[in-house]
Amino acid sequence: MFIKDIIKRIASFIGGRNPELIVRIRYRLRFHKRIDLDNPKTLNEKIQYLSLRTDTTEWSRLADKYAVREYVSDCGLADTLNTLYAVWEDADEIDFEKLPDRFILKTTSGSGNCVIVKDKSQIDKDGIRKYFKKMLNTVYGLSEGNPHYSRIKPRVIAEALILNDPESAKHSTSLIDYKIWCFNGKAYYIWVCTNRTHSGTNVLVYDTDWTVHPEHCNFTRYYSEGKVVPKPKNLDLMLSMAEKLAAPFPVVRVDMYNIDGRIYFGELTFTAVGALMNCYSEEFLLHTGQLIKL
Fold it and tell me: Measured between alpha carbons, how far is 217 from 288 in angstroms, rounded to an integer?
């Protein structure tokens, strides 16, 4: 763990000063070839091109899990927003007394650094404050060469804890995460994640007709093959909502939940897996890259 921390600090140092260099290093290590930013072709390359060589000010605003709420409302989709209980800039100010018995805490930037509370009476409040104090002092995105994350104002937000509906619970122990890939404002594929834990998640790719495409996946130890889940009854509505949110962008992934027919907005993801996605086949990465008009 000590060595990993040192490597991450070095990567953050380089990424903070020369994000393109750290991306080139990480891409070479992951894919064993050079990234082509001058003539990008694949999904990863085109996202990296946009991230490194275009204005991503709006990415920073919309990747912010608190600030994005205004954008969602402006798009006429306020009813998809989860209930917000509070937002704090200082972890020491987290007021558990004003929160219900169950809720979720997360930072406005970062990935996977949330704390799920199912019974407030059983939690270590000081430990949670200490954890988020560390998270707020960590500049996310530098070690991955994703500078738009590093510009997000660090805060902690508290939201309602969303639980699976009975039908979804038959197919996943966690919330079913519908990650809708949109290219130039049009939805093309849905990356569905089920049975998520800290050590991995089951995944499959579906098209907008809900035909499953396991051939588009590159299954790994973390991203293992999932079982086919039923088509959401209001899939067309989900897709239209995603397209409305994605309209201004060449590429963005719109993450949503669907609980007993109610659609919840999750987040907008501009650099999925740091735009170093090895969870898709080479053919899929090239195909989706061709759908992006720069």
Answer: 13
Please give the single-letter amino acid code of residue 91.
A
In whole angstroms, what is the distance from residue 85 CA to residue 195 CA?
27
39 burial level (CB within 10 Å; 0-12, 13-18, 19+): exposed
pTM equals 0.94
In a 13 Å sphere around the CA of 173, the CA atoms on its Cβ side amount to: 8
Question: Does 94 have pLDDT greater than 60?
Answer: yes
What the block records as the tokens of 78 is: 């306020």
Alpha helices in the chain (DSSP H): 2-17, 19-31, 43-53, 57-63, 68-74, 125-136, 147-150, 166-169, 235-246, 282-290
Q: What fold is seen in the domain 166-290?
A: D-amino Acid Aminotransferase; Chain A, domain 1 (3.30.470)
Residue 1 pLDDT exceeds 60: no
Tens of pLDDT, residue by residue over 228-266, are: 999 998 999 999 999 999 999 999 999 999 999 999 999
What tokens appear for 42 in the block?
Answer: 């694949």
